[in-house]
Amino acid sequence: MSQKWESLPARLNYAEPYDELLAQDYSSIYAELINKWAPHFEDRLILKTDLYDEALCRFRSYAVKVASAGDCMVGMDISREIVKAARSSGHACAPLQHFTCCDVRFLPFAENSFDLVISDSTLDHFESRDDIHRSLAELHRVLKPKGIMVLSLDNSSNFSEPLFRAWIALGLAPFYIGPTLSRKKLVHTLLDLGFAVTDETAIVHVPRFFGKAIVGLLRTVSGRKLDARISNWLKSLHLLEHMKIKYLTAQFIAVRAVKNG
Q1: Residue 254: which of 49, 2, 33, 77 has the closest Cα?
Q2: Taking the CB of residue 97, how many other CB atoms lie within 10 A of it?
Q3: Assuming Cys at both sites, which of 62, 219, 233, 234 could form a disulfide with 25, CB separation 3.0 to 4.6 Å?
Q4: CATH 3.40.50.150 matches 3-259
Q5: E strand segments, 126-187
Q6: End-to-end CA, the chain
Q7: Residues with Cβ < 8 Å from 71, sequence gap 6 or more?
Q8: DSSP helix/strand/coil, 170
Q9: pLDDT, mean of residues 185-194
Q10: Secondary structure (3-state) at 258
Q11: pLDDT band per the 50, 70, 90 thresholds, residue 1
Q12: What pLDDT is recorded for position 88?
C-alpha cells in the first residue's frame, strides 16, 4: 500500500493540487467541525492519521486551526516521502510536534494513548473494506477511554457516486481511491468495536467535478477579481448540511465516535 503513495509528491511535482479557494473552504469546514465536536481542554494528545494536506496542500491543512496551547499533535502517514514533505512544510505543520511513518492498520502506539483522533478521508484509500475495519479497531485501541474520534469517509450516497467510481476505474484519479463504507455500515462497525456514535453529518457540498471546473473557469477568466464572490458561493453551500438532502450532495460522511469506558 505504501508504494502507491511514495511517488505521489514527485508525480505532483510538489505543487498544490487544489485550487486555493476550494482548499481554504475545505480547511474551514473541517476546522469548524472538529472544534465543535472536540472542545478544547488542556494538554490533549492528538493523532492525525495522514499528512497529505500538510505535505502537498498547505491551504487545505487545518491543523493550526484545531490545536490549542498545550496540545501535542502527532502526524502520521504511510508514505515516507509525504512525512518528509510535511515535516518541511512550515506553517501548515506548526502544531505538529511529532511525525511518524506508519500504517494505520498496525499502529506503533500503546493502548489508551490519545485523547483525540482526527481521520479525514484516510481510510477510504485501501483495497478492501476489511482494511477499514482493521484500521478502526486500531484507532479504538489507541484512544483513551472516553477519547474522541472525528472521522470522515467518502460518501457513497452522493448523487454523483456512479460517475465518481467510473472516473476512478478509468485511472483518472491522481492517487489511489478505494472502497468506502455506507453511513449505516460505518455506524454499525463503530458500535461493534466499542464506540458510542454521538453525532453524524455530511460535509463538503461542493459538487464533485463540476464545482472544481466552475471555480477554475471563473478564476481563469477573472483572475482574482471574483474571489470574494466565489468564496461566498462556497460558504453558501455549507447550508446544505442542515437540509434533508445533505447525504445526496455531500462528498463525505462524518461521525463523532467516543470510546466507551
Answers
A1: 33
A2: 13
A3: 234
A4: yes
A5: 143-154
A6: 33
A7: 40, 43, 44, 45, 46, 95
A8: coil
A9: 98
A10: strand
A11: low
A12: 87
pLDDT-derived band at 58, boundaries 50, 70, 90: confident
- Give the Cα separation of 14 and 17 in Å (integer): 9
Q: Are 68 and 59 in contact (CB under 8 A)?
A: no
Section 194-199 average pLDDT: 99
Residue 14 near residue 58 (C-beta atoms within 8 A): no
C-alpha cell at 157: 450516497
- Residue 41 and residue 39: Cα distance in Å, rounded? 7
The answer to whether residues 204 and 26 touch, using CB atoms and an 8 Å cutoff, is yes
Residue 236 and residue 206 in contact, taking contact as beta carbons nearer than 8 Å:
no
Cell of 173: 484519479
Residues 256, 258: Cα–Cα separation, whole Å: 7
User: pTM of this prediction?
Assistant: 0.93
Q: Which three cell numbers stand for residue 32?
A: 469548524
Task: Quote the mean pLDDT of the chain.
Answer: 92
Q: State whether residue 172 is helix, strand or coil.
A: coil
Using one digit for the tens of pLDDT, what is the confidence trace for 22-49?
999 999 999 999 999 998 888 899 999 9
